[in-house]
């Protein structure tokens, strides 16, 4: 990670898995949408919607995460860059992805959006759809422990912890994009 005057630049190899982590409303999906291609982002919400047409139907969560991991494994089979977009708040929730990375000899990187629950609640209140509510945000916040040493011990190559302003300012540089990629060295900034 390098810091310019205003922004953090996150440099990633094209052949890797990026795991996003943060409580609901922290801006994970927005961060991903602004920096990565739509086929590169595999989200638990998207998988839930694909299964039952309802993003927040928790009854579909197990199936959604199985589908999410299956899609990521298939992308790894083809040496594709992927971003796992879900809360990933506990070591157990990240374990399956790290096992996939071991199986395919893929490096894993973690980007944690460490945004205060009050900010997340405010953002959630302004959403036009997909509101999760204050109670859900409080529940997730109670489970969230930002622990960089633990993340590295789990097996992540590198970890970035981004606060509210840092997440808004950060840019991502993908190096060595594979076949079908936009370029051999693409820079994706905030938009």
CATH class: Alpha Beta
What is the number of helical segments per DSSP (H or I, 4+ residues)?
8
Which stretches are poorly predicted, pLDDT < 50 over at least 5 residues? Answer: 179-187
| Separation of the first and last Cα atoms | 19 Å
Portion in beta strands:
15-25%
Which structural class fits the helix and strand makeup? Answer: alpha/beta
Number of strands: 9
Give the name of the CATH architecture: 3-Layer(aba) Sandwich
Average pLDDT, rounded to a whole number, is 88
Helix content: 40-55%
Overall geometric form: globular
Would you summarize the structure shown here?
The protein is α/β, with parallel strands linked by helices. The protein is built from eight helices and nine strands.
Descriptive notes:
The protein is an alpha/beta fold and 191 residues long. It has one domain: P-loop containing nucleotide triphosphate hydrolases (Rossmann fold, 3-Layer(aba) Sandwich). Helices cover 41% and strands 21% of the residues. It contains eight helices and nine strands. The chain has helices at 28-35, 44-52, 61-77, 91-103, 117-125, 134-143, 148-154, 164-169, and strands at residues 2-3, 8-13, 17-21, 41-43, 82-85, 108-113, 158-162, 171-175, 185-188. The strands form two sheets. A five-stranded parallel beta sheet has the order 4-5-3-6-7, sandwiched between helices. α2 crosses α3 (61-77), α3 runs parallel beside α4 (91-103) and α5 packs antiparallel against α6. 31% of the residues are buried.
């Amino acid at each position: 990670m390098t810091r310019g005057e205003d922004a953090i630049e996150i440099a990633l190899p094209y052949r890797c898995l990026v795991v996003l982590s943060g409580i609901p409303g922290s801006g994970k999906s927005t961060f991903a949408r602004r920096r990565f291609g739509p086929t590169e982002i595999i989200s638990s919400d998207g998988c839930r919607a694909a299964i039952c047409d309802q993003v927040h139907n928790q009854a579909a969560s197990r199936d959604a995460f199985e589908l999410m991991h299956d899609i990521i494994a298939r992308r790894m089979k083809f040496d594709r860059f992927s971003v796992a977009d879900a809360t990933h708040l506990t070591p157990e929730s990240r374990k399956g992805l790290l096992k996939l990375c071991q199986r395919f000899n893929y490096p894993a990187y973690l980007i944690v959006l460490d945004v205060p629950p009050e900010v997340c609640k405010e953002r959630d209140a302004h959403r036009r759809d997909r509101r999760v509510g204050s109670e859900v945000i409080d529940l997730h916040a109670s489970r969230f422990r930002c622990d960089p040493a633990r993340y590295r011990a789990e097996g992540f190559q590198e970890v970035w912890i981004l606060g509210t302003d840092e997440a808004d300012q950060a840019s991502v540089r993908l190096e060595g994009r594979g076949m079908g990629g936009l370029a051999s060295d693409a820079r994706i900034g905030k938009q």
